[in-house]
Design a protein that fits this description.
heterotrimer; A alpha/beta; B alpha+beta; C alpha+beta; A: alpha/beta; TIM Barrel; seven-stranded parallel β-sheet; 7 strands; 16% strand; globular; B: alpha+beta; four-stranded antiparallel β-sheet; 2 helices
């Protein structure tokens, strides 16, 4: 088994609140968190910025409760896509995209959900938990995503904040479970404040409410998160190989870029 | 000697109750619930998530310390997941944010008196 | 459709035994010996205000244990260590502050078996033979490696020894903070303190607390009746819960109509004026617990007001074994504990309780 992880800590907050969030996650026993940078294409033209370097942001990371290790901080990019053209960015060879440890996509339509599950090179597909499902989950794309090692992310913070969202969270989660049979689920917080975070065992218990079994529920905050991270690592290195082959003239530049991102990863 | 007769009983998943050691986290400076308000908060949490049937779930506040906002709760075993999830999803106390932290759960109350994950041995 | 598991509690086991402490075939001491790692021992004596000297000195004699920081695990496999400690007494080691459902962990049993419980990645890097953990699910994510340090085939020149040493020293060096204790009968030799003097080692003493509980409601028990009878005596499960209530300072006098709590002392019960409670916390080895258990039996050698007394032992939640070499895991609580009720006539009740990821106690 693996340590507990929260793969969604919003990066939007200022540095001080981010620091207190990190301290709270470490205190609750998480050993890995991912800082999430969200790009919503509905809001004007968005540039993909380079991920923040956690080691630069926080010279000394908090110690995980009950251990002697420091918390590990990853970077994550989430693209909110409502039009197929938004996915082009993922197919492009933007160097900045590859610097993120985890790439997630939040599809707003059934077609985009299908594309995300079947063709996009991503690690996580976000499930809408704040409104009524805008489409049905269908078996073929979901199974395809599971085969491709892509995980589905459910968030729990909206369910703490608002009783209507709580209903959507539970019912959308149960709908998904009927199709994915409890496989490939990750549960994360998206908490903006320490008091919105919950401990890993508490979150695993919530998984039971969503229709997961005991083992699947614990995996949703541990081993499945680890698998998502590994999927991200593979994607990063695979992407590098393709790039080198396609544009032989830029080999030199690329070769320096790949070790650099690997280095950043090991430091994180 | 009848008293020396050996007897062994194995009770599998037969515990009538489960126990939770919990702590309520509140923002600094907020009003602290007394024991009765604390119990009321637990019932509210159950009602919010599981409705009237949830609110009717027998839950005992076996201990409560107002200073640390820590408590030991007892619930019938079939209600463990319901109580736990209700506490986890509770977000507000008197319109201010709050969080229940479940520190330990066990089907044995005795287990709560010696948690090696919390004992400091050095 | 609401998920079915909402109404289900995770698996757990409670074994209740009764026997006689002086019966020639009684296994009560063996159950203590087989449970290697304990972090807290508590005993409760009703009708007792002052602890007899002999019990006081037994507790004082609980001895030291050691904490060695960042100890590379290959040092436990070294032959100097095996010859000096493992083969000359009972040597106990347990990784400290590692969580068995998340991290790698290790333990050395007094029979000389070194147990490593490691995740899949570490297992593959180590390249030592092991078996999948029983509690790791369909996709195996955790493996258990057992190395018998006292095995005849594990001598310093053997292939097996060299391979283990190489794996732990060079292939995948693992280190932990270790709790250590060593029990030997009389044999002279070096001490753990001097052996590990180059490492960061600390000698620690168990923390002992005493308290006197006043006007305590105690259940009436019949030693030959585990299940109890209404109006006559309480059952073993009732006693087990009551003891948990006492050790957690739960109020016992509620009514069924009370708003806060409806828990009350099981019926029938008697109020004892004073009860003595002692709690010992540390890395406590079975040999010391057996001595204490024996002294507690001797307590009834002289006429006493108490009808019975209890001895509770809490295991480590993150130990890789519970009893003997039975694999132990942590699902929600990692509980593994046992409790004796010793009666005046030296009949005993024994409770052994484990959580979800555990075998049935012996």
């Amino acid at each position: 088994m693996a340590g507990f992880a929260d793969l969604n800590v919003p990066q939007g907050a200022d540095k001080k609140s981010l620091q207190s969030l990190l301290e709270a996650t470490a205190h609750l026993g998480y050993s890995v968190v991912a800082l999430n940078h969200v790009i919503d294409f509905k809001e004007k033209k968005q540039e993909i910025i380079k991920p923040v370097s956690p080691s630069e942001l926080f010279p000394s990371l908090p110690i995980v409760q009950g251990t002697s290790k420091r918390i590990k901080v990853l970077t994550r990019l989430t693209l909110v896509v409502s039009d197929p053209s938004h996915c082009n960015l993922l197919r492009s060879t933007s160097a900045n995209i590859r610097l993120y440890d985890i790439i997630a996509v939040f599809p707003k339509t059934e077609k985009l959900f299908h594309i995300a599950c079947t063709t996009l090179d991503v690690d996580l597909v976000c499930i809408n938990v704040t409104e009524k499902l805008p489409f049905y989950f269908r078996r073929p794309p979901v199974n395809m995503a599971i085969d491709r090692g892509i995980y589905f992310e459910l968030l729990y913070t909206p369910a703490i904040k608002d009783s209507t969202m709580r209903r959507y969270t539970i019912s959308n989660a149960i709908s998904l479970m009927q199709i994915c049979k409890g496989k490939n689920i990750v549960i994360s917080s998206a908490a903006e404040r320490p008091l919105e975070l919950r401990g890993p065992y508490d979150v695993a218990n919530l998984g039971l409410l969503f229709g997961l079994s005991e083992g699947e529920a614990k995996a949703a905050v541990s081993t499945n998160c680890r698998a998502t991270m590994l999927h991200g690592e593979t994607r990063k290195s695979a992407c590098g190989v393709v790039y080198t082959v396609k544009k032989p003239r830029k080999v030199e530049e690329e070769e320096t870029a790949v070790p650099a991102c690997k280095k950043a990863k090991t430091q994180a | 000697m009848a008293a020396a007769a050996f007897e062994r009983r194995v009770l599998q998943s037969a515990a009538e109750h489960h126990y939770l050691r919990v702590r309520l986290e509140l923002p600094d400076g907020g009003a602290r619930p007394n024991a009765a308000q604390f119990k009321q908060l637990v019932v509210t949490a159950l009602r919010e998530l599981h409705g009237e049937v949830g609110a009717a779930l027998p839950v005992d506040v076996l201990t409560y310390e107002e200073k640390t906002l820590s408590a030991i709760l007892r619930v019938i075993s079939s209600g463990l997941v319901k109580l736990w999830s209700a506490l986890t999803l509770l977000g507000f106390y008197q319109n201010r944010r709050c969080a229940f932290r479940v520190l330990q759960t066990s089907p044995f109350l005795l287990a709560l008196s010696g948690n090696s994950r919390e004992l400091v041995l050095d | 459709m609401l998920p079915a598991q909402l109404g289900r509690a995770p698996r757990h086991l409670l074994v209740c035994e009764r026997g006689h402490a002086r019966h020639p075939r009684s296994r009560h001491a063996a159950h203590v010996r087989d449970h290697a790692y304990s972090c807290r021992v508590s005993f409760l004596i009703p009708e007792c205000g002052l602890l007899p000297e002999v019990l006081k000195s037994t507790i004082a004699d609980f001895g030291e244990y050691y904490l060695v920081r960042n100890l590379p695990i290959h040092e436990l496999v070294a032959h100097e260590f095996i010859d000096a400690f493992v083969k000359k007494g009972s040597c106990y080691a347990l990784a400290y502050k590692t969580k068995i459902d998340q991290d790698n962990t290790a333990a050395l049993l007094p029979n000389g078996k070194l147990i490593l419980s490691v995740d899949k990645d570490t297992y593959e890097e180590l390249g030592l033979q092991g078996r999948p953990s029983r509690y790791s699910g369909k996709k195996v994510m955790r493996y258990i490696i057992t190395v018998d340090l006292t095995d005849a085939g594990f001598h310093p020149e053997s292939k097996k020894h060299n391979r283990v040493l190489w794996a732990l020293k060079e292939k995948k060096p693992l280190e932990f903070d270790f709790l250590l204790a060593w029990y030997n009968t009389g044999a002279e030799g070096s001490t753990l303190m001097s052996y590990f003097s180059k490492n960061q080692i600390q000698a620690l003493k168990p923390k002992i607390t005493f308290s006197t509980l006043r006007d305590l409601q105690c259940p009436v028990l019949q030693s030959n009746d585990l299940q109890g009878k209404p109006e006559e005596s309480c059952s073993t499960e009732e006693l087990f819960e009551w003891l948990g209530a006492v050790l957690n300072q739960v109020s016992l006098d509620n009514k069924s109509s009370s708003f806060l709590s409806t828990y009350c002392c099981p019926e029938p019960n008697t109020v004892v004026e004073k009860a003595f409670l002692c709690t010992i916390t540390g890395f406590i080895i079975p040999e010391k617990i057996i001595q204490l258990l024996e002294q507690l039996c001797c307590y009834f050698g002289e006429p006493k007001l108490a009808h019975w007394l209890t001895l509770t032992v809490h295991g480590f939640a993150d130990s890789p074994v519970s009893w003997r070499e039975s694999e132990h895991g942590f699902h929600k609580g990692g509980e593994n504990l046992y409790n004796f009720v010793i009666f005046r006539n030296l009949d005993y009740w024994l409770h052994m309780a484990v959580g979800t990821h555990d075998d049935c106690p012996p």
